[in-house]
Specification:
The protein has 220 residues and is of the alpha+beta class. The chain has 8 helices and 4 strands, in the order H-H-E-H-H-H-E-H-E-H-E-H.
Length: 220
């Protein structure tokens, strides 16, 4: 797949088949993604791939806590509010998604079900978790963002679906316990990855993007 095509056609998938991704495929995706640039080649990212029984344990625990409306204590706190332009983008994206799924504004049960599906890896058996050492700074977080984009594009090029999710790291204590990691390791993001259902409505929703002229200023 040509690079521009991969960037222009990639989208987050939120409905996966219940079957594992071969380890060789994950290895291929991560090996290429590790070529990401970083500050002075510091390569701050650490990676945990969850499959099988480990995924079952994580899903069970984070789903139960989310179902009880437990706010969790993410290592990197979720924003409490967004500036108006970003808030507008998020509102329009959510509105478009629920309309495509025919879920009304007052259908709280269906909306809750949709949100909680995050904690089940959207049906996938596999998730990739990105974490860093607590001594690292925001510059290393930026480097990890570049690395994560590589994962998403490589997954797409490999014919898989993927979805980056803050929800998966909402309960980092569960992840550290299950993955046997020390408190010094801080979770940035989880990525559900797998074979996505190509005919699923939610996997075919096109989200809008800011127009070039609204995002870019040229200075001569």
């Amino acid at each position: 797949m040509e690079l521009f095509e991969a960037i222009l056609t990639r989208s987050s998938k939120r409905d996966f088949e219940d079957r594992p991704v071969p380890k060789e495929t994950i290895d291929k995706i991560l090996s290429a993604s590790l070529r990401a640039p970083s500050w002075a080649n510091s390569q701050p990212w650490e990676i945990a791939v969850s499959t099988g029984k480990t995924s079952d344990i994580i899903k069970k625990e984070i789903y139960e806590r989310a179902s009880k409306d437990d706010p969790g204590c993410p290592d990197f706190p979720f924003p409490e509010c967004w500036p108006e332009p970003q808030a507008k983008n998020m509102f329009e994206s959510g509105k478009h998604r629920y309309e495509a799924l025919c879920i009304g504004r007052d259908d709280t049960a269906k909306r809750l079900e949709t949100v909680l599906s995050n904690y089940l890896f959207f049906g996938s058996q596999t998730a990739i978790f990105i974490y860093i050492d607590e001594k690292l700074t925001n510059w290393s977080i930026l480097d990890c963002g570049i690395f994560i984009q590589n994962i998403l594009l490589c997954a797409h090029a490999a014919g898989l679906g993927a979805c980056p999710q803050a929800y998966l790291v909402r309960y980092p204590d569960v992840l550290r316990k299950t993955l046997e990691l020390p408190e010094s390791k801080k979770f940035l993001l989880g990525i559900s990855i797998g074979f996505y259902k190509k005919d699923s409505i939610i996997n075919n929703i096109e989200t809008s993007r800011v127009k070039l002229n609204d995002a870019v200023r040229y200075y001569d």
